[in-house]
Amino acid sequence: MIDYEFLRGRQNETVVKELCMVSAAASETFRFKSPYKMGDHGSSENGLNWADGHIEYKELHTVLTDAGFAHLYACGVSKCTFLAGLTGRPIHKLEDLACPHPSLSITNAGVHCHVTSFPNLLAQPKPRIHSTIG
How far apart, in Å, are the Cα atoms of 116 and each of 5, 49, 60? Predict the structure, then answer.
């Protein structure tokens, strides 16, 4: 499953600031730098700031395509459409699989990743979480 937090760019475009990928074995969170110079401001809706991030924004496509998953899932039509445009492959809607609401904690094999609905109201950055599978 893929979930992301975003800010609105200069042209009102979606700029991914944080992306979380979750599988049965592990979860990984990526925080991206701004794709261009912006003032140091952010969003009161999700607590993200333009200054947040350590991965170059141009690596967003690589992060998504190098994950190596046969199927990708996201919650909501907006996120599925956006991610499909970035990856060039279908993104399956979790709602179609009768999955629990994404505001619930996903637990499997000792992995916890808290995802939120779109747009989210999370005020704190998510910690990087490692699998407890040996």
Answer: 9, 18, 20
**E strands, the chain, in order:** 2-8, 14-22, 27-31, 72-74, 91-93, 105-108, 111-114
What letter represents residue 17's amino acid? Answer: K
Q: Which two tokens stand for residue 96?
A: 């179609």
Count of residues for the chain?
134
Task: Return the structure tokens found at 105.
Answer: 């904690």
HSE-CB of 117 using CA atoms within 13 angstroms = 5
Task: Using the structure block, give the residue that is written with the tokens 């600031």.
Answer: 17
How confident is the prediction along the chain (134 residues), in pLDDT tens digits per residue? 899 988 888 899 999 989 999 888 888 899 998 888 877 776 666 667 777 788 999 999 999 888 778 888 898 899 999 999 988 889 988 888 776 555 544 444 333 344 433 333 333 334 444 444 44
d(CA 77, CA 9): 21
What is the chain's percent helix, strand, coil content, to nearest 5?
20, 30, 55
